[in-house]
């Protein structure tokens, strides 16, 4: 196993050396963007989709990424190769960079790019079969007019406040509603419900990230002939669903067995959820960019 190295503005450094300025606006204000990406058996899963979302987020917040798209992909590949990382998690961060204490991004002339790759502690196979217990929380999703949840920004305080509520209830993930009471997403996952064989996930305008796992699941549904709708729904619809599951890069497709004390379906991962997990796992090693053969 190679010693862990981190990509920091064009250089490869050790974890101890990987330091940024205390004047970096990513640190001072959460001013920046990021991606969480998985590599499965040498394949960067949905690499293009992640980079597209990164560059779209950058455009939206007027952040100039100092690397071209191809240079960014090459930096990811090199970081994985140097770390001999065939299976793991990639955290790609672009912060506004060092500036002064004021908010003005014009004072941060150069964005910083950081790539960290690590092994991932994922849910046990038992959890995938049994499903998670979850709750809805009082913390609402940021409204799109204030900070659009489609932007994968470094400002995750909204999500962290949800995580705190989840921690207090001793659950691993929680359901966030938008300010009108429609279900938006989890703290770091998208959500789907299944009722009478039809899947529904909230449209992103409700207040959800355009999750790449979410999209992969919608594409799988189309391919295998399952109906999937993007429609707003409420907690009531979650409580009475036959199946509920979260999707995310780290979580993949994880069933929910209980929400706010209501048992969902059979109280275990449902048939559709498990089928989608299986289909999802069958594409993760092929759909993306190969780093190692
Ligand atoms: N919503 C939020 C708020 C997230 O941070 C994430 C990513 N962890 C997701 C949804 C899932 O997105 P993806 O499938 O692209 O990982």
From TrEMBL:
Pathway annotation: Amino-acid biosynthesis; L-valine biosynthesis; L-valine from pyruvate: step 4/4; Amino-acid biosynthesis; L-leucine biosynthesis; L-leucine from 3-methyl-2-oxobutanoate: step 4/4; Amino-acid biosynthesis; L-isoleucine biosynthesis; L-isoleucine from 2-oxobutanoate: step 4/4
Name the record gives this protein: Branched-chain-amino-acid aminotransferase
EC number: 2.6.1.42
Organism annotation: Paenibacillus albiflavus
Example of a GO biological process term: L-leucine biosynthetic process
Function recorded in the entry: Acts on leucine, isoleucine and valine.
MF annotations from Gene Ontology: L-isoleucine-2-oxoglutarate transaminase activity; L-leucine-2-oxoglutarate transaminase activity; L-valine-2-oxoglutarate transaminase activity
GO CC annotations on file: cytosol
Matches recorded under InterPro entries: Aminotrans_IV (IPR001544), Aminotrans_IV_CS (IPR018300), Aminotransferase-like (IPR036038), B_amino_transI (IPR005785), BCAT-like_C (IPR043132), BCAT-like_N (IPR043131), Class-IV_PLP-Dep_Aminotrnsfr (IPR050571)
Record-linked Pfam families: Aminotran_4
Family per record: Belongs to the class-IV pyridoxal-phosphate-dependent aminotransferase family.
Cofactor: pyridoxal 5'-phosphate
Signal peptide bounds: none
Keyword terms, alphabetized: Amino-acid biosynthesis, Aminotransferase, Branched-chain amino acid biosynthesis, Pyridoxal phosphate, Transferase
Subunit structure: Homodimer.
Classification of source organism: Bacteria, Bacillati, Bacillota, Bacilli, Bacillales
Reaction catalysed by this enzyme: L-isoleucine + 2-oxoglutarate = (S)-3-methyl-2-oxopentanoate + L-glutamate; L-leucine + 2-oxoglutarate = 4-methyl-2-oxopentanoate + L-glutamate; L-valine + 2-oxoglutarate = 3-methyl-2-oxobutanoate + L-glutamate
């Amino acid at each position: 196993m190679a010693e862990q190295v981190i990509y920091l503005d064009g250089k490869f450094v050790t974890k101890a050396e990987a330091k940024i300025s205390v004047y970096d606006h990513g640190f001072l204000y959460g001013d920046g963007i990021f991606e969480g990406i998985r590599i499965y058996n040498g394949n960067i899963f949905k690499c293009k989709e992640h980079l597209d979302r990164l560059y779209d987020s950058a455009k939206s917040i007027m952040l100039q990424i100092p690397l071209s798209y191809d240079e960014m992909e090459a930096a990811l590949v090199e970081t994985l190769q140097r770390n001999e990382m065939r299976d793991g998690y990639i955290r790609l961060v672009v912060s506004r960079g060092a500036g002064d204490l004021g908010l003005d991004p014009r004072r941060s002339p150069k964005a910083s790019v950081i790539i960290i790759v690590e092994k991932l502690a994922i849910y046990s196979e038992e959890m995938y079969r049994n499903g998670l217990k979850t709750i809805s929380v009082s913390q609402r999703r940021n409204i799109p007019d204030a900070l659009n949840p489609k932007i994968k920004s470094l400002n995750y305080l909204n999500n962290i406040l949800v995580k705190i509520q989840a921690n207090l209830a001793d659950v691993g993930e929680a359901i966030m509603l938008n300010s009108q009471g429609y279900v938006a997403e989890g703290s770091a996952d998208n959500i789907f419900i299944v009722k009478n064989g039809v899947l529904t996930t909230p449209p992103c305008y409700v207040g959800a990230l355009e999750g790449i796992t979410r999209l992969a699941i919608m594409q799988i549904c189309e391919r295998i002939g399952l109906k999937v709708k993007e429609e707003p729904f409420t907690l009531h619809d979650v409580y009475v669903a036959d199946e509920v599951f979260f999707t995310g890069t780290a979580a993949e497709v994880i069933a929910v067995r209980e929400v706010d004390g209501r048992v969902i379906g059979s109280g275990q991962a449902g048939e559709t959820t498990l089928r989608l997990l299986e289909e999802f796992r069958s594409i993760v090693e092929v759909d993306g960019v190969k780093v190692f053969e």
